[in-house]
Every structure is written in structure tokens, then in C-alpha cells.
């Protein structure tokens, strides 16, 4: 199976053929993969070199002329380094674009912390009007990308090497039910789904699958909890707690408890492999099962 | 240099009257003394651009074929607003509300609120990258007529984002792109070797002129520069003089 990033390259190459309004801005990352696209569309595939502030500014400038920019590099350099450009060159200008990142939170642990961006979604949460897609499979990445490119809005697509085994029919808006149960609700974001399903095997919980986290599908969570007091766990492949505010807002008028699981804020300062980092953050099935069971068990006595 | 040098606005024209008009318009905006000198430093260059160079009017402010003028150096926008009022983009009446809660005119301009304003600005270093993207976007759509102008200050040139844009635009051959640098000597560490040389080293066509000499500005603005972006450095009286 290809990776989400490889699928991004192949599908965007096709989209550039199909949609004359689409333009791609790169800062050397993935430039090799886009070489055929650059040959076919030299004026709409723009590699600015290793210049991330310029990359975002160019995206905003392209949008000001009516084009639809897709802007891509590693998450650290796409969202964190030029954050003020993301804020001003899109939002403040009142224009849109599609930011597509690779690298995510722990895709390349041997590369160290410089190439990890667990805070990207939390950062975008400080801005208005960004749709955030976190696909859990290359098929979903392609589907979400195809939904994003025709619009005029601001969209972030977060790609990762971590993937679920099977893609699901995501629609770019709603959370999908993955399991029904009565003792609580677990929201699994993107590539966390397989681990969450394994972790909750045998538990009587509802599992919701979220690949579009902003806007947050509050109605899906409300439906899932029913009427009574609610216990909600949200498992995200980025900074732990990023979406607990969204859950709280969704359940503002219902007594509830929320547990936010994800990547720890504290720098792990370890190299190694993705699996080792998932275990260290308690995001492997065993770690998740332990923490979800303790949280829901603690709720029983309430 | 003093304002008494602002007498030769155009060939044989009674420039004094136009300048007095702009000065009167600027006087309608009050309460921004901090940005006062920055505002007047751009006045001559802005007027020459809007009066004689830019192909844009209130009627064509939304046309894809219009020339674009981007002002990232949002500080001291009084001259900009005065020129926009003189050219009919905004009503003179709104000038008096400058900076007020219900005014469209802030101390930094907002493209969403002011017709003819191409970018919302204030944070230094955003305009030139946006201008590069605008030039690329026009080129990609086969819009070969419109020219893109961006005005920055010599201190704004300190921002690294501008250097990313300068270094890219030269080799990319963005000959529809023009940068006007108002040099009032306000960069903390200065630009040894001169500002124009930085652009030239990046593959731009560049010239340095007296920013109060409207004829010299016009000549520099309209000089041909095939295959290369153009930078015009307009020297004005030092900020702290």
C-alpha cells in the first residue's frame, strides 16, 4: 500500500490536470515526486526552495488572484515556522487555501523533535475558519483532498505514515460510528482508530471515528452519549487534550467527564521507531486500554 | 530635504496644488503622531504611482486586469488613504474617522474594509511574499498585462521573509513584479553596500532615486526591465533627522 504522502502526490498530480484553478506550492519537500506535474504545469507547480515563510505568502498571493493553492511541506515547517503567515496571509486577507502536511507527530522518530509537530492542530485552533482533516488511510486522504480542492475555504490536511488497515467512507464532515456500546464514548481520530478498536475490544463502549476534527462534529458526540451523564474519551495523534475544549463545548449542558489522550507535551527526547513512540505516549493498544478502562471504571462509582 | 522641494510634481503641471490637496486630506486624519513621518515619506512616490503609473481606478478595482499595489508597510497609511481619496477609491468624509471603532480606516489598512486596498497589512514582511504569489498567480492565468507593485520601508527589509521573496523572484524572472523601497534610514543596522545592490545580487533590476523628486521617481518606475523584477529605492529625509 502507498503512504498518505505518496497518495497525495499521485492524486494532486491528477487534480492539477483536471482543475486549471489549482496551483501547488512546495518548499523542496516532495519536489521529486511532483517532477512530472511540474513539467506538465510549470506555471502552477511552484517550488520556492527552502523558504517556508515565502511558501505561505505565495499561497496567499495566488489565492488573491483567484487560484486555489495547495501548499505542502512537513508539518513543523508548514504550520509552526510560518505561523504568522498562516494567520495573516490567508485568514486576515479573507482568502483560502489547502495546507497539506507530512511528518505529523512521530512519523520519523529517528529524525528527532525538529521534525515532529504534535502542536499543529492546537495552533490552528487559535485561528478562525480552518477545516482540519486527519485522514486515517491513504484512500481517506485522497477523498478528503478531493473534497478540499474545489472550494475557497481554508483547509488543513494532516498526513501521517501511521495508517489504519482499511479506509472508510469519510465525507469531510461527520464522525462515523465504528462500534456501539453503553458505558462511554471513545472518539478515535484518524490513524488512531485501529489502536482504539483493539484497545476497547470487549468493552461496552461506543467508538466514533473522526477524520474531520474542525469543525467538530458535536451532534455525533451528543447522539452517542444519549441522555444521561456522559464519559467521553478522545484519542488524537497529536497533542493530548487538543480537542477536549470541543468536546466540552459539545456537551456544555450535559453532565460529563472528558479524558483527552494523545501525544505528551513534554519532549520525549528519544529517537527510535514510531511504534516505540506510540508506546511511550501510551497510544499503543495496551496503553490505551489501560487508561480508557481506568477512566471509565472510575466513572462507574459516580 | 524639506517639503519645499515638493514643487515639481509633473512636467509643467502646477504640482503645488495637488500636493496641497493631499496635505489637506492627510490633515483630516489626526491622532497618529507616531506614524506621521512614515506617512509623509511615502507621499511623493505614492502619488506618482497612482497618478501616472498604476492602471487601476475605482471602476476597475476588482478587475482581473488591474495593476496591483500592495502596502505591507501599513505604518503611517495617511498618505495612502489621502491618495486613495484623491483618486476616488474612498470618500473624503471617511478620512476624519481614521482609527475610530466604526471607521473602515485603521492605522493599518484592511483589504476587506477598504475598496482598492489589495492586502490587509501591519505586520512587516508579508507584502513582498504575497506580491510574489500574486505575480505568479497572474502569470499562471495568462494575465500578462497587470503589474504588481509593493511598497516597503528600508527597516521592513530587515524581515527575513522579504529576503526569501527577493531571492526567489529574481531567478524566477518575475518581470511584472516591482518593489518600491522607501529609504528613510530607519533600519537599525543599516544596509552596508546599499539596498539596491541587495536586489541586484538577487537578479533584480534596481535603481536608487531621490524620493522627493517626482520626475526621477516616474523615470525609475517606468524604466524597462525585461525578464527581471524591478526595485526602486527612493531615498527620503532620514527618520531621525
UniProtKB/TrEMBL annotation, chain A:
Example of a GO MF term: magnesium ion binding
Residue ranges constituting the Transketolase-like pyrimidine-binding domain according to the UniProt record: 2-166
SMART domains listed in its UniProt record: Transket_pyr (SM00861)
Gene3D superfamilies (UniProt xref): 3.40.50.920, 3.40.50.970
Highest rank taxon of the organism: Bacteria
Pfam families xrefs: Transket_pyr, Transketolase_C
Alphabetized SUPFAM superfamilies for the sequence: Thiamin diphosphate-binding fold (THDP-binding) (SSF52518), TK C-terminal domain-like (SSF52922)
InterPro entries reported in the protein's UniProt record: PDH/Transketolase, THDP-binding, Transketo_C/PFOR_II, Transketolase-like_Pyr-bd, Transketolase_C
PANTHER family recorded: PYRUVATE DEHYDROGENASE E1 COMPONENT (PTHR43825), TRANSKETOLASE-LIKE PYRIMIDINE-BINDING DOMAIN-CONTAINING PROTEIN (PTHR43825:SF1)
Protein name (database record): Transketolase
Species name: Streptomyces tirandamycinicus
TrEMBL record, chain B:
Gene3D superfamilies, alphabetized: 3.40.50.970
Origin superkingdom: Bacteria
Cofactor: thiamine diphosphate
UniProt entry tagged with the keyword Chaperone: no
Pfam families: Transketolase_N
MF annotations from Gene Ontology: magnesium ion binding
Keywords for the protein's UniProt record, in alphabetical order: Thiamine pyrophosphate
Domain Transketolase N-terminal per the UniProt entry, residue ranges: 27-223
PANTHER family associated with the record: TRANSKETOLASE N-TERMINAL SECTION-RELATED
Family: Belongs to the transketolase family.
The protein's name: Transketolase
Amino acid at each position: 500500500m502507498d503512504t498518505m504522502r505518496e497518495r497525495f502526490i499521485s492524486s494532486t498530480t491528477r487534480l492539477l490536470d483536471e482543475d486549471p484553478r489549482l496551483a501547488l506550492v512546495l518548499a523542496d519537500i516532495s519536489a521529486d515526486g511532483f517532477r512530472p506535474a511540474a513539467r506538465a504545469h510549470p506555471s502552477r507547480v511552484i517550488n520556492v526552495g527552502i523558504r517556508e515563510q515565502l511558501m505561505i505568502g505565495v499561497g496567499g498571493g495566488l489565492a488573491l488572484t483567484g487560484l486555489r493553492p495547495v501548499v505542502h511541506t512537513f508539518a513543523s515547517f508548514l504550520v509552526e515556522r510560518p505561523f504568522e503567515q498562516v494567520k495573516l496571509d490567508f485568514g486576515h486577507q479573507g482568502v483560502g487555501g489547502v495546507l497539506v502536511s507530512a511528518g505529523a507527530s512521530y512519523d520519523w522518530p529517528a529524525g528527532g523533535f525538529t521534525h515532529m509537530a504534535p502542536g499543529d492542530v492546537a495552533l490552528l485552533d487559535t485561528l478562525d475558519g480552518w477545516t482540519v482533516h486527519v485522514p486515517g488511510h491513504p484512500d481517506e486522504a485522497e477523498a478528503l483532498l478531493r473534497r478540499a480542492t474545489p472550494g475557497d475555504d481554508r483547509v488543513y490536511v494532516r498526513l501521517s505514515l501511521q495508517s489504519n488497515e482499511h479506509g472508510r467512507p469519510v465525507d469531510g464532515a461527520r464522525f462515523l460510528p465504528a462500534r456501539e456500546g453503553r458505558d462511554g464514548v471513545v472518539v478515535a481520530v484518524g490513524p488512531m482508530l485501529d489502536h482504539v478498536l483493539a484497545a476497547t475490544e470487549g468493552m461496552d463502549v461506543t467508538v466514533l471515528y473522526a477524520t474531520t476534527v474542525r469543525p467538530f462534529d458535536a451532534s455525533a458526540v451528543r447522539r452517542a452519549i444519549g441522555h444521561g451523564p456522559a464519559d467521553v474519551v478522545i484519542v488524537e495523534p497529536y497533542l493530548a487534550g487538543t480537542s477536549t475544549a470541543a468536546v466540552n463545548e459539545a456537551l456544555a449542558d450535559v453532565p460529563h467527564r472528558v479524558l483527552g489522550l494523545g501525544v505528551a507535551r513534554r519532549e520525549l527526547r528519544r529517537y527510535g521507531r514510531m511504534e516505540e513512540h506510540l508506546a511511550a505516549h501510551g497510544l499503543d493498544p495496551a496503553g490505551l486500554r489501560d487508561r480508557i478502562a481506568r477512566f471509565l471504571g472510575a466513572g462507574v462509582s459516580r | 530635504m524639506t517639503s519645499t522641494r515638493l514643487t515639481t510634481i509633473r512636467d509643467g503641471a502646477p504640482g503645488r496644488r495637488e500636493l496641497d490637496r493631499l496635505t489637506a486630506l492627510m490633515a483630516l486624519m489626526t491622532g497618529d503622531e507616531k506614524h506621521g513621518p512614515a506617512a509623509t515619506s511615502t507621499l511623493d512616490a505614492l502619488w506618482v504611482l497612482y497618478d501616472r503609473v498604476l492602471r487601476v481606478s475605482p471602476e476597475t478595482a476588482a478587475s482581473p486586469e488591474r495593476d496591483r499595489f500592495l502596502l505591507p508597510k501599513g505604518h503611517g497609511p495617511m498618505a495612502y488613504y489621502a491618495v486613495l481619496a484623491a483618486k476616488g477609491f474612498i470618500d473624503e468624509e471617511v478620512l476624519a474617522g481614521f482609527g475610530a471603532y466604526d471607521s473602515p480606516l485603521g492605522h493599518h489598512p484592511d483589504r476587506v474594509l477598504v475598496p482598492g486596498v489589495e492586502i490587509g497589512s501591519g505586520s512587516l514582511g508579508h507584502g513582498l511574499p504575497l506580491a510574489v504569489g500574486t505575480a505568479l498567480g497572474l502569470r499562471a492565468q495568462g494575465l500578462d498585462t497587470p503589474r504588481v507593485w509593493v511598497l516597503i520601508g528600508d527597516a521592513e527589509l530587515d524581515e527575513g521573509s522579504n529576503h526569501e521573496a527577493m531571492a526567489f523572484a529574481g531567478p524566477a524572472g518575475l518581470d511584472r513584479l516591482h518593489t518600491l523601497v522607501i529609504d528613510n534610514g530607519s533600519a537599525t543596522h543599516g544596509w552596508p553596500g546599499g539596498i539596491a545592490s541587495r536586489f541586484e545580487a538577487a537578479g533584480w533590476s534596481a535603481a536608487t532615486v531621490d524620493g522627493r523628486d517626482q520626475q526621477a521617481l516616474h523615470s525609475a518606475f517606468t524604466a524597462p526591465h525585461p525578464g527581471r523584477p524591478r526595485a526602486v529605492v527612493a531615498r527620503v529625509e532620514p527618520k531621525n533627522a
